[in-house]
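fwd from M.: "can u put these together and see what the complex looks like"

so here's what she sent:
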Amino acid sequence: DSGVTQTPKHLITATGQRVTLRCSPRSGDLSVYWYQQSLDQGLQFLIQYYNGEERAKGNILERFSAQQFPDLHSELNLSSLELGDSALYFCASSVEPAGVRDTQYFGPGTRLTVL
Amino acid sequence: DQQVKQNSPSLSVQEGRISILNCDYTNSMFDYFLWYKKYPAEGPTFLISISSIKDKNEDGRFTVFLNKSAKHLSLHIVPSQPGDSAVYFCAASAGSLSGSARQLTFGSGTQLTVLP
């Protein structure tokens, strides 16, 4: 158990809909990262937050947005969903945003299926 | 353009033998490399890392080797055990230009199967 929690574990929805994925980081971690893993692909970095502020953006679509709240949990909002958005979405957390040896610890993921 | 490549989607080894997983990268700005292990229905779990100032790091049965000139790293597992069967992801990290953030770039993973 990494200490990172994600809800829900599974989500099935239809095209055009909007969903929210939730992540609680490990106790004491200030940085949260979101990744997408599509079928047979590696994890693609989406976005990073540190202590409530956006720090880095990766290949995140404009239909996707995220935020980190004062209690440090984070939400990833996916809107106008398309079939291709079906994937595993992972959240990771770490203590610092830029330490060289800053290891990211991953949650169990949310499996999103868009029908 | 894949900056981190794991060219072998799968690898099978006999229990007790050595497992060697390979990873190549193209971005010379990467200065920190990690290996993660992933079991089905779980998130990736950190395994071992290496800084670009080293060429080897060892932790129990796991050793990571880094060849910067070849932009290649490998993970050695000795001896391999059936419980090591999982997907192994190589990841690389570089600091941002502003120094305020780091990103992990992952390879596509290698499924290791250790046969009893």
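replying to her w this: The first strand of chain A starts at residue 5 and ends at 7.
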